[in-house]
Amino acid sequence: MASPSSSDTPTDFIRQEVCAAWKIAMPACIALIPLGLALGVLVVQAGLLWWWAPIFAAFVYAGSLEFLLVGMVTAAVPLSQIALTALLVNFRHVFYALTFPLKRIHRKRLKMYSTFTLTDEAYALMMPAHREGWSQTRIITIQVFLYIVWVGAVAAGALVGGFIPTWVVGLQFAVSALFIVLAVDAYAQRPSVPIPLVAIGCALIGAIFTPDSYLLTAIGLFVASLTGAYVLDRWRAQHGQ
Questions:
Q1: Residue 52: which of 76, 35, 69, 32 has the closest Cα?
Q2: Using an 8 Å Cβ cutoff, are 154 and 39 in contact?
Q3: In terms of pTM, does the model score above 0.90?
Q4: What pLDDT digit, counting tens, does each position of 93-137 carry?
Q5: DSSP state, residue 156
Q6: Among 3, 24, 22, 25, CA closest to 13
Q7: Selection from 109, 62, 54, 121 nearest residue 86 by Cα
Q8: How far apart are CA 14 and CA 8, in angstroms?
Q9: Counting Cβ atoms within 10 Å, is residue 224 exposed (0-12), middle (13-18) or buried (19+)?
Q10: Alpha helices, DSSP H only, in 162-213?
Q11: Cβ–Cβ contacts within 10 Å for residue 76, how many?
């Protein structure tokens, strides 16, 4: 457990924890920079004023959802559909909260901030078992670093976005590339063939039968599949099968 030694003052301990947090968060921060720049550029190229980019980044703070919101806002999508999309895209955070070390954070305001800034990257950095003993200072500082870098990168991308020709394409694939990397890494840690196949099947069903809203259909089916599998596993465990 990370705790100050008898020779450390509170200030020394905080300094050590902040330095340790930066060393842990730095690789993820570096990875967030090109993704944030891409989002900022997309905001400007979509016809929105540049300052909308840091607003999206600061208040929504959900990379994949922010990429979707740019297109949905410019297309004047109904608020109800935006809300449903946000629920389905970020539903995974419900499961994140079950194992994220929020119990290590004792102050209510800091716990609220940690919950708000619970992203895929933060969750990935916190999950190894030996990190369960990390201090409140280290956990919060990691999330602060990720937040600052993300908002800064998005704002920078928006400021330079006006200088990038509109014929430059492929920026929309940045978030897809991120999740592909996360998926490959997750598979390497816990190989499971059925889950990727179910995800591909849900995507195909959505694309074929509801092409105008295939993402909502695909995510909804996938969440329902995972929920059904979990309930079935619990039922089998209770009945000894």
A1: 69
A2: yes
A3: no
A4: 777 777 788 888 888 899 999 988 888 888 888 876 557 678 889
A5: H
A6: 3
A7: 62
A8: 10
A9: exposed
A10: 173-189, 194-209
A11: 6
